[in-house]
Design goal:
Number of domains: 2
Structural class: alpha+beta
Number of strands: 10
Number of helices: 8
Pfam family, one: GvpL_GvpF
Oligomer: single chain
Protein name: Gas vesicle synthesis protein GvpL/GvpF
Strand order of the largest sheet: 3-4-2-5-1-10
Largest sheet: 6 strands, mixed
Organism: Goodfellowiella coeruleoviolacea
Strand content: 25-35%
Shape: elongated
Radius of gyration: 26 Å
GO cellular component, one term: gas vesicle
Subcellular location: Gas vesicle
């Protein structure tokens, strides 16, 4: 989140992206983070995609409070990415981080002028390129995987109890199940790790750049299995079909491992981290 802390009451300018010039008509019917229609602010050979939003909802103190509301944050993120994606379908676009806010459009124009060289360099690098994401998971649903729990947990007998009865046989069966589960998890993790190395080697050769992200927490992603590998690749648009086909080929016919391919996306992962408001803008999070 980036906020110009001198913003007064009234309205402020929310910036979605910096892009090469594009017809403003591409934004017709597009709705931004507060329901309004974004517009373009031009400076030489750059444009900023901007929304006029109420300061009461988007100044520093308001954003700090609203970012605690996950439903609001998710809705704003969807709208933000929707605007960026719309523009990126027509021209090279450099997404700015969520909730980048300036005092007004004049401040936005000044920001474009101050960082024109850096923006131009980044846009040149991303022009004609897309981002693809690849994740590798262990697959707990693979055929032959032992059950995660279960068996007879009551006082009944098992085939391992022997003539003496009691709980010794049931206890041994439980330990065997737990050992089998652990070995299955270890085997799946090993296969996923080896596949990840292979994928990164092969797909990396088809990409111009890559970013290795932290694996996602299973509780947050909602996906089955453990995320072992999480990477983004910057791929020339004319090689996207080859990249996707190769990724699917590498993921085919696997047991105990699952591969997730997403894209093509606007190359968010390859936006330089340095692009934050300067001058009167203040980085607050």
């Amino acid at each position: 989140m980036s906020v110009d802390t001198t913003a007064p009451t009234g309205t402020v300018s929310y910036v979605y992206a910096v892009a090469r010039p594009v017809d403003a008509a591409v934004l017709a019917g597009v709705r931004g983070v507060d329901g309004g229609q974004p517009h373009l602010v031009a400076c030489q050979d750059l444009v900023a995609v901007v929304d006029t939003v109420p300061a009461a909802g988007f100044d520093e103190s308001a954003l700090r409070a609203r970012l605690e509301n996950l439903d609001w944050l998710a809705a704003v993120a969807r709208a933000h990415h929707g605007v960026v994606d719309t523009v990126a379908r027509h021209t090279a676009a450099l997404p700015l981080r969520l909730a980048t806010v300036y005092h007004d459009d004049d401040r936005v124009r000044r920001m474009l002028a101050d960082q024109r060289e850096a923006f131009s360099t980044a846009l040149d690098r991303l022009t004609g390129r897309t981002e693809w994401g690849v994740k590798v998971y262990t697959d707990p649903t693979a055929p032959g995987s032992p059950p995660s729990s279960g068996g007879n947990t009551g006082g009944g007998t098992s085939a391992d109890s022997g003539a003496g009865g009691g709980t010794g046989g049931a206890g041994k069966a439980y330990l065997r199940r737990r050992l089998a589960q652990r070995r299955s998890r270890e085997d799946s993790w090993q296969r996923a790790t080896e596949l990840s190395r292979r994928i990164d080697q092969v797909l990396g050769d088809l990409a111009e750049d890559r970013r290795h992200h932290r694996p996602q927490d299973a509780a947050l992603s909602g996906a089955p299995g453990e995320n072992v590998f999480n990477a983004a690749y910057l791929v020339p648009a004319d090689r996207s079909a080859e990249f996707a086909a190769r990724a699917r080929e590498l993921a085919c016919g696997l047991t105990g491992v699952r591969v997730e391919l997403t894209g093509p996306w606007v190359p968010y992962s390859f936006v330089p981290q340095a692009f934050t408001p300067n001058g009167s803008g203040t980085e607050v999070a």
